[in-house]
Amino acid sequence: MPEPDHMPVELEDQYHHYTGNRIPWYVRLMWVGFWVLTVVYCLRYLFPAMQRELFSGP
Asked: Long-range CB contacts (< 8 A, 24+ apart) of 35-42?
């Protein structure tokens, strides 16, 4: 077998098998819930508080 620095492409590529992992449905559901609650929080609490702070006089 040739040294690693001088291996032909065919030999170098033979051990590169990439497989992905599927995300479980409950992890996707947790992410969807997180983003839904983030949007609700921003609309309900963050934006009204910012408007009061930014547009109220000193």
From this structure: none
